[in-house]
Write a sequence for this structure.
């Protein structure tokens, strides 16, 4: 029995590649731009919706390119209705989760770059599940387009995209950057580069590469500890890239780009929320153009640590700010549906949809 050929995802193609497909079928190049606009400006989901295209071209698109890159299997809304989490099935039955967070003036997406994660951070549900595979650039793009379409139906739009969902974006560097470039394309979705934020556990060489490429997306680094022993226990990657090396790369980034860097800090009671820790953190970050985003730890099944209470969090913040380090205590969102930072863990639910 012959193997079934898996169609290419249309979201994996940039505009020149899409143009090659279309001209290869004997169509004029401008047809590719019509398709591009249909995908990224009108949010079309199937060839049938491209009514400005000849029927023969729509048939070729349906035959050769896959439009349904992600299959939404389950959607949960938080009790306050401000957070929506979606479980997506991929074509190979792997699964990922992504989140829409509604604020007064913002509609922020938390997008995944991998199924699972190889970094193994002990307090993170994705890290606890291990690494499954990288997402393609199109699978990253498709998450944004899914929510863009959803918001468009409500006369709203995406305002920010954070690549802080499942996976380490810099471990999947090429596909992550290709996805950002595709979403940033001025003739397509045209989503401003500075409205993206990437979060990394501190892959120092790639922080430097990111700086050298002069990219405009915002950078956030998960730090979480002020000494290597503690950080290595929490984040195994620290054994390869210890705190001094990570901070050296961060200083390089700021010097190269003149842009502020953010440090993510999960406040864990009695672990990294003490006054002593806050004072040491202030010393580590002294002179660096930065901001600390502190968020009380979100619960995950396999980590016993608990969140710092409000009083300890405020004390931590006050010490940093007293030393000249800006700090924000972030609001915890979607905890009741496990949609908060560190809580995403896609579950595989077999479906015949991609058979």
């Amino acid at each position: 029995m012959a193997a079934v050929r898996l169609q290419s995802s249309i979201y994996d193609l940039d505009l020149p590649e899409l143009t090659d497909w279309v001209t290869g079928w004997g169509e004029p190049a401008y047809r590719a731009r019509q398709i591009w606009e249909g995908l990224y400006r009108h949010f079309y989901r199937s060839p049938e919706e491209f009514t400005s295209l000849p029927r023969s071209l729509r048939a070729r698109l349906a035959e050769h390119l896959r439009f349904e890159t992600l299959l939404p299997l389950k959607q949960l809304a938080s009790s306050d209705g401000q957070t929506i989490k979606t479980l997506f099935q991929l074509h190979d039955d792997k699964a990922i989760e992504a989140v829409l967070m509604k604020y007064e003036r913002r509609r922020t997406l938390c997008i995944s770059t991998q199924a699972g994660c190889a970094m193994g951070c002990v307090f993170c549900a994705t890290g606890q599940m291990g690494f499954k595979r990288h997402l393609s650039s199109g699978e990253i793009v498709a998450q944004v387009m899914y929510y863009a379409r959803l918001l468009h139906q409500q006369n709203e739009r995406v305002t920010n995209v954070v690549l802080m969902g499942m996976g380490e974006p810099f471990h999947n560097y090429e596909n992550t950057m290709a996805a950002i470039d595709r979403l940033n394309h001025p003739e397509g979705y045209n989503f401003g580069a500075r409205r993206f934020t990437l979060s990394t556990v501190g892959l120092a060489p790639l922080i430097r590469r990111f700086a050298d490429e002069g990219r405009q997306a915002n950078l956030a680094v998960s730090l979480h500890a002020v000494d290597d022993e503690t950080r290595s226990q929490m984040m195994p990657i620290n054994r390869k890239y210890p705190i001094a090396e990570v901070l050296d790369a961060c200083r390089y980034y700021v010097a190269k780009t003149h842009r502020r860097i953010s440090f993510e800090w999960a406040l864990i009671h009695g672990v990294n929320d003490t006054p002593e820790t806050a004072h040491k953190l202030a010393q580590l970050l002294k002179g660096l153009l930065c901001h600390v985003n502190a968020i009380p730890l979100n619960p995950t099944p396999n980590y016993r640590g608990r969140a710092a209470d409000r009083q300890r969090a405020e004390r931590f913040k006050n010490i940093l700010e007293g030393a000249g380090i800006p700090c924000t205590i972030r609001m915890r969102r979607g905890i009741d549906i496990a949609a908060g930072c560190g809580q995403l863990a896609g579950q595989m639910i077999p479906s015949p949809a991609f058979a």
